[in-house]
Amino acid sequence: MLLLVMTPSFISVPAPAQAGLQFALPPGYYSYIKLSFPATENLTFRVISSVPVDVYIMTQRQFSVFNSTGSVSYVFFSSGTNISHTFMGKGIYYLVINNDVSGQLAIINLWYSFEAISISFNPGMPVATGIADYGISNRSDTVYPYEILARGITGFAKIYSIAAYNSSPPANVSRYGASLQLNVNLQINTTGGTYVYWLQDVLAFFTNNDTAIFGDNIWNSTSYGANMMPIAGKGIIVPFNGRTAYVFSSQPFRYQLPLSLLLFINVLNSSENRVSVQFGYQINGSEPVIFDSPSIKVNGLKSYALIVDGYSGAPDGSYYDAELVFGGEAKGETTNFTSMDSQLNMWYTLFNGSEVEPSSVYTFGEDTLEAADNLRTVMVNGMPTVTIGKINYSAEYSLSDLKPESLNVLAVRPNYSELYPL
Q1: How confident is the prediction for the chain on average, in pLDDT?
Q2: pLDDT tens per residue, range 6-24
C-alpha cells in the first residue's frame, strides 16, 4: 500500500537545534523531519507514541525512494511505543515516523537534539582493554572525526606474559581463559540497502596449560538484535542472548612466551554476488595462515569495505570502530588477569594497497562484550603496552610510525586482483 504523507509533513530543522514536538498521526500516514548534521555532532532522539509506530533514519536517496514508492530501506529502524537512539551522521538524513502498525490514531511526542560526538563509557566498569580506533581524534578539547575504508586490518601483539583466573565463568568457559581480539565492522552497500557485520578474529588462551585456539565470529549489526543468516564457511550459526552469530573455532595448540603474533582480517569479492572474509594469523614470523574464509551472499552488490567512522555509528547503535583488545575468553566473560605484559599495534590496508595507522587510539573497546577488570594501556618506549593496573579511560595515543617491522613479523599481502572496487 502506498503511504500517504501527513500535512504539514515537512519540518526543516536548523542545526544545531533542540526540539520537543507533539502531534497526531492518523493510521496509514507518516511524518518526517529533515536533519542537517553539523560536522562534529550527532543526533539524540526519543519517540513516545500512544500506539506502536515504525521509526526510521534514512539517507536522502532512501527517503526519496520511500517518499515516491513506499519501498523501505534505512540506516536505522525500530518499532514500538518508546524508542530512543543516538545516531552519528554527516550530511542530510531524514527521521521518519510511520503509523502503519496498529491501524489506530497515534499521538506522537518527539524530542531531539544535536550534541557533540563523544565516546561514552562507564568509569569503573570492566572493559575490553588494549587499543581501539573510533575515528575520533580529540586535540585540545576539539573533536576531529575521520573515516577509514579499508580492505584489510592487521593487529600486532608481542605477548611477554599472560595469565587469568575467574572463579565463576559462564558455562563451558575456562576459569583460566582469556582472549585477544581483533574486531572491526564490514559495511556492504547494495542496490537494496546497506548491511553491516561485526567481524571478530580471536585468539583464546587457556593460561593454566599454555594452550590456545583461534576462532572467528560474525554478527549482524544491520539493525538492533538482528540474526545472522547462514553463510558459507567452516563455522556454524549459534544462538546467544536472543540472537544468532556465525562461529568457528580451530583445534587447540600449545604456545610459548614471548609470543609475536599478527591477527588479520581481509575482505574481497570472491564472486559476483559474494563478499568473502579472510580470518588469519601469523605466529613468530612464520607463514601467514588463513584459518577461515566465510562468504556472505549479497544481491545487487555496489561496494564494500572495513569501516571506521567517527561521523556515524552502526545501525544497531554500536560504534564504527576497530579494536585490538584483551578480555575474557568468550560469552561476554569478564575476567581478572593475574599476569599481563604485552605490546600492541594496529594498521589498515587501503584499497590502493597502502598501509595507514589510526590517527588516534583509545585504551578501551566499547563494542567488545568480553572484558577485563584490572588491565590498563600505557605508552612504553613509544609502544602501547598493556599491563596489570587500573584502566585509564581518558588516555588517547598516536600510532604514527609504530609498525614493528624490526621484529620480523610481516603482514600477509594476499593477491587483491579480484577485489571489488569502491
Answers
A1: 83
A2: 333 333 333 333 456 788 8
Nearest CA to 404 out of 262, 255, 202 is that of 262
pLDDT value, residue 115: 60
Q: Are 130 and 377 in contact (CB under 8 A)?
A: yes
Closest CA to 420 of 289, 259, 298: 298
Q: Which residue bears the cell 564504527?
A: 320
Instruction: Find the mean pLDDT for residues 355-364.
Output: 89
- What CA–CA distance (Å, rounded) separates 340 from 14? 50
Our CA angle for 201, 215, 147, nearest 5°, is 15
Instruction: Identify which of 391, 408, 404, 413 has the alpha carbon closest to the alpha carbon of residue 131.
Output: 391
pTM to 2 decimals? 0.72
Distances (CA, A) of 159 to 68, 284, 349: 57, 11, 23
Query: What does the pLDDT read at residue 117?
Result: 53
CA distance linking residue 132 with residue 167, whole number of Å: 28
Instruction: Give the E-state strand segments of 191-300 in sequence order.
Output: 193-206, 211-220, 236-240, 243-249, 253-254, 259-271, 274-283, 289-292, 295-297
